[in-house]
Specification:
The complex is a heterodimer of chains A (334) and B (500).
Chain A lengths: L17 H23 L1 H25 L10 H12 L6 H14 L14 H12 L14 E3 L2 E3 L2 H4 L23 H6 L11 H13 L6 H20 L7 H6 L3 H8 L10 H21 L6 H18 L14
Chain B lengths: L1 H5 L21 E2 L5 E5 L9 E2 L6 E2 L4 E4 L8 E2 L4 E10 L7 E9 L19 H10 L12 H11 L3 E6 L8 H8 L1 H15 L3 E7 L3 H10 L6 E6 L8 H9 L14 E5 H13 L5 E7 L7 E6 L4 H7 L9 E4 L6 E2 L13 E5 L1 H4 L12 H5 L6 H9 L3 H6 L10 H5 L6 H74 L1
Parallel strand pairs in B: 1-14, 9-10, 9-12, 10-11, 13-17
Antiparallel strand pairs in B: 2-8, 3-5, 4-7, 5-6, 7-8, 13-14, 15-16, 15-17
Helix pairs in contact in B: 2-3, 2-5, 4-6, 5-8, 12-15
The chains are: A mainly alpha (334), B alpha/beta (500).
The complex binds iron/sulfur cluster (2 copies).
The site of one iron/sulfur cluster has 14 residues of chain B, from α11 and α12.
Chain lengths: 334, 500
């Protein structure tokens, strides 16, 4: 059928879709995730599967309640939320705690606000914070990685690796909780052989995934770069002044969720500003807050709080920090 | 620095070109059409007065209609034939508006009715050149449709320094300017030189996107022996064809929002216009045909054609071998900013640069979703606006909000819609908001006018009342005065007579 009714241009399209973008982000997360599963074992797999599948289920219910097309449940955004939440949890988290976090993330964090695009806060971080408040013990139960060893007769799977029970196993300190004490070496931090949450252990793999996203134009370098710099700079200065009470820049940047936050969480398209200036401000805000909370706050990790606080400023940033209109001499339009 | 040179302005996109469909075959001159339809209503709404009647025999190049002033370019007969009818016919207006149209039946004879001998252009004064351009009925062939002669005259008055010829052709599919530069480079150069003389400016720069190497080399050799003409290569980036962006890319200057390029001493014309100017000045030939790209995935044989004005789109499609599959949309112009044709029986007018028969695969129409605030539209916008905010405000008819985020500066270029992953028809919202803004401005003007009238009336009434009062006062004064004066007078007269 030839269409003769007036439709505005363009009469063509670049071909990207939200689903396409979301799945590219998920693809970028796969290496770090697989590595995390390899390090932490069966319970990590269970946590990931529980998060992703319950995210889709809750999203489906949410869309039903909103009266929207339920096809969008599989558009990748819910899967990504569940996935990111799983990556930010300790690998030993019981599956039902993970699922309740997902419920909070999707239903309270997204559906209540009107669905994808309307939510002011990063849903995964909202779920993470809720869990941290409700289940502080489980959420700070960090384990040392226990990857399969090459034994005499094939792979040797550790007891902890196989365990689905959260109780047994040895707790360990994360690099962040001992930022000033005996740190894992730099190579340990980069490669991920240290205690930590499921996906934030290997800074290197996260970085690779992030660079892939920048290369494909899915995210822009502004937020990750400014965020990491704003953690590194105060850390470096304070470490130079008082090394015994402040962690070094590399320890801050490479440990905990900093990398994951920089490339995958703060860059969440819905909840971060859209203008270049706004993104830079947002990145700086996140970075500085992460460093402040880690250094002076009562929680060892500040990523989730920092991102949520900055999310709250996004609408204001977007309203005032507009890009410069082409040809306009004054650059600031406050 | 390299990055800067690669991207002369922020934003912009690289849409898929599809230029390969037509860029490697020469321009074909189609045979004389059997019938043409010339709308008497111009794009700006002015209705021309026809100089011919039904039944008249007319010859190719004859003046058939003209308007009240220079804002309306005259219309010439594109073929030899007979005026069959003057009746309403569908026009290229997107709503399929019917306008009064001259229907001319052709006799197939391709000769010009009036001989057009070449003249010595070096003897012409600038005003004579401009007059010939006006008489030939030339409008901007890049799509704006503004009378070219007026633009030249205006530029002369403003003391423009540089003429910029736009050979960017950044719209996908279209290759007619590219082919024209390759095949008629000398004529374009001559036209440019004539325009430089008409404006009295220093130089003309022909800007060509770097994806047209053949055009660049041909034009470069065509201007080699003309010191005031030059060719400049600009990166291919949509919308390079936008006047402001081309100026930025070529000269590095920006035109402040709300101002015309002539303010900074630059006038922009299309390369095809330069070629038409050449014909108009050298041969005094009116603009009755133009090169057009007929393309699209649904078309059997995409071609660049020389098309007589008033030819029906359906004839052009037939000329290009017809459709090979169902076309989902017929578009006049390029796919980014072109308009949907309301019917295949629309006649071509001077500002249509291409006809596209697009298949469903090319259009990629899809259900739109909610905005995910991904900011891709912000990154793509060449004007530095926030399209998603403008759309959100436009959707709820918050026009002030939409203007806060840049509605007034929007080019309607469609870069934002092209990249939006949620398929939001952003441009549709902007067009809608613009037209309601225009409507409310008209209303405001009207009510301001009405208010003025009322105020004027009140003022008049007041004045009249004052005047009446004053008159009354004066009358009463005069009455009083007569009452007094006569008394006084009477006194005096009385006294006098009495004294007398
Ligand atoms: S590109 Fe589309 S989805 Fe993304 S912010 Fe712009 S309008 Fe919203
Ligand atoms: S249509 Fe308007 S808002 Fe969209 S990219 Fe073009 S100028 Fe920017």
């Amino acid at each position: 059928m030839v269409q003769f009714t007036p439709v505005a241009g363009p009469h063509t399209h670049g071909g990207t879709s939200t689903t396409h973008l979301m799945f590219l982000v998920i693809a970028a997360l796969v290496p770090a995730t697989v590595f995390g599963l390899y390090l932490f074992g069966i319970n990590a797999v269970i946590v990931l599967l529980a998060c992703v599948s319950s995210a889709v289920l809750f999203e489906y219910i949410g869309l039903k309640l909103l009266g929207k097309s339920t096809h969008s449940a599989l558009d990748g955004s819910a899967i990504l939320t569940g996935w990111l939440l799983a990556l930010s949890l300790p690998p030993s988290t019981p599956w039902w705690i993970a699922v309740s976090g997902v419920f909070f993330a999707i239903v309270i964090g997204k559906t209540v606000f009107g669905g994808l695009g309307q939510n002011p806060f990063n849903p995964a971080m909202l779920g993470r914070v809720m869990l941290l408040i409700c289940f502080p013990v489980e959420l700070t139960d960090w384990r040392l990685p226990n990857p399969p060893q090459q034994g005499a007769d094939g792979l040797l799977l550790g007891e902890q690796w196989l365990s689905t029970n959260a109780i047994d196993g040895v707790s360990a300190a994360t690099p962040l909780s001992q930022l000033t004490g005996a740190l894992p070496s730099l190579s340990e931090l980069t490669t991920g052989h240290h205690a930590g949450s499921l996906g934030e252990t290997s800074a290197l793999l996260i970085l690779l995934g992030g660079l892939f996203l920048i290369w494909r134009g899915i995210i822009h370098w502004r937020i990750p770069a400014t965020l990491l710099l704003s953690i590194a700079i105060p850390a470096a200065i304070s470490h130079a002044i008082a090394p015994e009470s402040f962690g070094s820049a590399s320890a801050h940047v490479l440990s905990g969720g900093a990398m994951l936050a920089a490339f995958f969480i703060a860059t969440d398209m819905v909840t971060s500003p859209t203008s270049p200036k706004g993104q830079i401000l947002f990145g700086i805000g996140c970075g500085v807050l992460i460093w402040l909370i880690r250094t002076f706050g009562s929680y060892p990790e500040g990523v989730a709080f920092a991102v949520l606080i900055m999310n709250a400023t996004t609408p204001v940033i977007d309203h005032y920090l507009k890009p410069a209109v082409f040809g306009q001499p004054n650059r600031f339009s406050l | 620095m390299l990055g800067l040179r690669k991207k002369p302005f922020s934003g912009g996109i690289h849409p898929r070109g599809h230029k390969e469909l037509t860029e490697n075959t020469a321009i074909v001159s189609s045979e004389e059409p059997r019938r043409v339809c010339l709308s008497l209503q111009q794009r700006n709404g002015v209705v021309l007065r026809s100089h011919v009647n039904v039944g008249d025999t007319i010859v190719k190049g004859q003046l058939v209609a003209s308007g009240p002033n220079d804002m309306c370019v005259p219309l010439h007969a594109p073929i030899n034939g007979v005026v069959e009818a003057i009746q309403p016919h569908v026009s290229a207006h997107p709503s399929g508006l019917k306008t009064n149209t001259l229907m001319i039946k052709g006799n197939g004879d391709p000769t010009w009715g009036i001989p057009h001998v070449p003249c010595d252009t070096s003897k012409l004064t600038p005003e004579e050149i401009i007059q010939r351009v006006l008489d030939a009925g030339i409008v901007g062939l890049g799509g704006a449709g503004f009378p070219s002669g007026l633009k030249l005259r205006f530029a002369r008055q403003k003391g423009v320094k540089t003429l910029l010829l736009n050979g960017g052709e950044c719209e996908p599919y279209l290759t007619c300017d590219d082919r024209l530069m390759r095949e008629k480079a000398a004529e374009i150069a001559e036209g440019a030189a004539l325009m430089v003389r008409a404006i009295g400016c220093e130089q003309a720069i022909i800007a060509i996107e770097d994806n047209k190497p053949d055009s660049i080399s041909t034009m470069q050799s065509a201007v080699a022996d003309r010191p005031n003409l030059s060719v400049q290569i600009v990166p291919s980036l949509y919308p390079m064809g936008s006047e402001r962006h081309l100026i930025k890319a070529v000269t590095g200057h920006t035109v402040p929002p709300g101002q015309l390029s002539t303010e900074i001493g630059i006038l922009v014309h299309n390369v095809a216009t330069a070629q038409a100017v050449f014909e108009a000045v050298r041969y005094q030939r009116p603009l009755i045909r133009r090169v057009m790209t007929i393309s699209g995935g649904a078309l059997e044989q995409p071609t660049n054609l020389i098309v007589a004005m008033g030819t029906l789109v359906s004839d052009l499609i037939a000329r290009c071998g017809g459709l090979k599959m169902e076309a989902a949309r017929l578009v006049a112009g390029g796919p980014m900013m072109g308009q949907v044709l309301p019917s295949p029986f629309v006649p071509i007018d001077k500002s249509i640069g291409g006809i596209l028969a697009l298949s469903a695969d090319e259009i990629r129409a899809e259900q739109s979703h909610d905005c995910v605030r991904c900011g891709r539209c912000v990154n793509a916008c060449p004007m530095g606006l926030m399209p998603f905010q403008m759309a959100a405000h436009s959707r709820v008819s918050d026009l002030d909000g939409a203007r806060h985020f840049g509605l007034d500066n929007c080019l309607l270029c469609g870069a934002c819609s092209y990249v939006c992953p949620s398929r939001i028809p952003l441009v549709q919202y902007f067009q809608h908001a613009r037209s309601s803004l225009n409507a409310s401005r008209t209303m405001e003007r009207k009510s301001a006018h009405a208010r003025q009238l009322t105020e004027a009336r009140q003022a008049r009434l007041m004045r009249e009342a004052e005047a009446k009062k004053a008159a009354k006062a004066a009358r009463s004064k005069t009455r009083k005065r007569p009452a007094r004066t006569p008394r006084k007078k009477a006194d005096s007269t009385d006294s006098t007579p009495t004294s007398n």
